[in-house]
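User: I'm putting together a teaching handout on how multi-component assemblies are represented. Below are the sequence lines for each component of a complex, exactly as they appear in our records. Could you produce the 3D structure of the whole assembly as structure tokens, so the students can see both representations side by side? Please keep the chain order the same as the input.
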Amino acid sequence: MSSYDRSPLVVTIDGPAASGKSSTSTLVAARLGVRHVDSGMIYRSVTASRLRGGDAPELWTEQSVLEAARAVSLSPGETSFVPRLHGVDCEAEIRGEAVTALVSLVAKMPHVRAWVNALVRQTAAAHEIVVDGRDMGTAVFPDARLKIWLVALPAERARRRVLQRTGRAPNAEELAAETAELEARDLKDREQTQPAADAVWIDTTGISQDEQVGRIVGLAEERR
Ligand code: DC
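Assistant: Of course. Below is the structure of the complete assembly, with chains in the same order as your input.
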């Protein structure tokens, strides 16, 4: 057995916005009995921390964002590592529109990316994790035991997002608006959203969540 085989299990689940990474990762982590880390939530928490500064985003320097990042930590919950701001749960704040509008700007800053990556690696050094994001299988864990690349057609991703937000299926107008918004976000995040060469691709457009989770758990168990 190589030292690679004895390292703590890391499963990376990457893909574009609303491809189902986060919900899939939570369920996979629960089935494997490990915790989930949502790296997008860390970028969101850093953005929320910097937003509390109150000044215009045009004035944000990378250094000032890095300073704001120091207020962010990951705290172990039952099924996931939850980001906290000054030690306090910030879930509602990081899902808000202000953060969503600015998080791509923050996620483009190379030193901020290095800071987030270090935090995730530090967590994985001591715990088995399922981690989702855009570049977990490429930049952060090139040697991860299992790498998944989740994709789904834009219209399907848009349908799921509206369903999640409103609890009902979207009408044609909502679907078109949501699809356009998702495609604009894909464009903004495209540089850091790349599949690893050795990732297993799963197209979730036509399969149930149970089925995708089952496939990933099966692969993870084979490699554990
Ligand atoms: O997955 P999400 O929508 O919560 O991600 C929030 C933002 O963070 C989005 O702009 C993409 C970016 N992100 C990233 O650049 N790298 C990651 N590993 C995770 C998220």
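A couple of points students might notice: Residues 110-126 form the longest helix (17 residues). The two ends are 12 Å apart (CA to CA).
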